[in-house]
Amino acid sequence: MTVDEIHKITQSKELETVFRECKSFRLFGNKDASRDIACSILAFANRHGGKIIFGINNDGSFDEKLARDLDGLKGKIQNICYTNISPRIEVEVQLIEGDIDFLIVEVPRRKGIPHSYIKENSGHILERTYYIRTMHGKRPVNDAQLEWMFKDVNDPGISIDIVSGFEVQKQNLGVVGRPFPHSSYEIGWFFQGLDPEDIDENLRLNDKTQPFMLQTTIWALLKTFWRYFPNSWHIGISKSYNRMASGSLVTEKPVPMCKLGFSDLKIIGDDLFPKLNWVHGFKEYMNMTYKGPICLPPDSTIEIHFEELQHPYIKIVGSKYSLKIQLSPSSLGSGTHSMNAFRSAWFDLNPLRADQESRANFYYLECLIHYDAELDYLDLETEEFNMLQKFISNLKEIIDDNWNLEKSIKNYPSKEFYMTNIKLDKLLELAQKKGK
Q1: N or C, which end of the chain is more exposed by having fewer CB within 10 Å?
Q2: Which residue, among 373, 180, 199, has the nearest Cα to 273 in the 3D structure?
Q3: Is the dihedral of CA 186, 192, 194, 200 positive or negative?
Q4: Is the dihedral of CA 265, 266, 272, 275 positive or negative?
Q5: Judging by beta carbons within 10 Å of its beta carbon (0-12, 13-18, 19+), is residue 386 exposed, middle or buried?
């Protein structure tokens, strides 16, 4: 770090951030200097890492130039990291001497268990205190935060990618069920409500097709969420017979929540759906689709973003969490999907005919669903943290169970099964002809 960079910091709007703290050299003269410095260092290490700059006051002014043993202060900081912090932290200390003196401590992000300030006697640790860095400085961690920190070095959250997709029959615009995920039925629901001519127009593999398919998928995703949270966002999930069921969990106190209806959704960008011809009208059909409220944590909002037609997403945000579910197209075309085992068997037995009939009768879409969830866990009490963590985990499970194409296909017969079945049908047909 240079003197010019330090001057820019003191002139910026935020003197201190989650990555940076400024302290005066006068701190070293305080009785509790070792504890203060140790806790600041370990708080950075327990979050993202960061820098502590000595030589700057709280108002952004610089300490006056005095005779200081900077090498001695550097040694003191390194000694604090070895004797007052467990596990030890290897920091880098930079000295800048000139008209103004600075001492910069660069703290690395932890790679393992969280660091603590320790009190010991005769080599035995008597007490441990854990801190973490926030936008407002360092703060002690509660039990839930500490439990998470021992599990993971990152802030709590979930980030996954799921391959999804569906097939549509050209003749009757029906969505193919097996072997595709349960979400196929959600897609089919919207096709039922549209004028067939409108659907046909948007499925003719032109510049409208992909945006139409992706926007239909976004609305269908939202419909899936609506099914699981009609009474509470604090739910339990169970699975049996390849189906997922949910129900509100019993709690000692009422679960705080907000209830949103279709009219509460904020749509940003070019929404194609209102421009289409709906059997009962757009708003009427949507109110019927999203009948009743969806229950979410307090102060939640739902935004549907269509600014980028190829990458639409749903954003659900509360005061202490945020979710983003974004689609990215992988492939789109006429024919059946390559992961469909029946298609593979069909193509192996009669490739030319299978290709012709497949293209004549089906469309398919494959897309990637990216789910990203974050918790502002530093402002959460233990119970609230556990509930919100369960909520974002439940949403991941719901998407994975209802929309995962790769997972769904594994539940159905293989290509070899279908090939055997087709051959047996032909033998049966021949036997029946000979019998006549």
Answers
A1: C
A2: 199
A3: positive
A4: positive
A5: middle
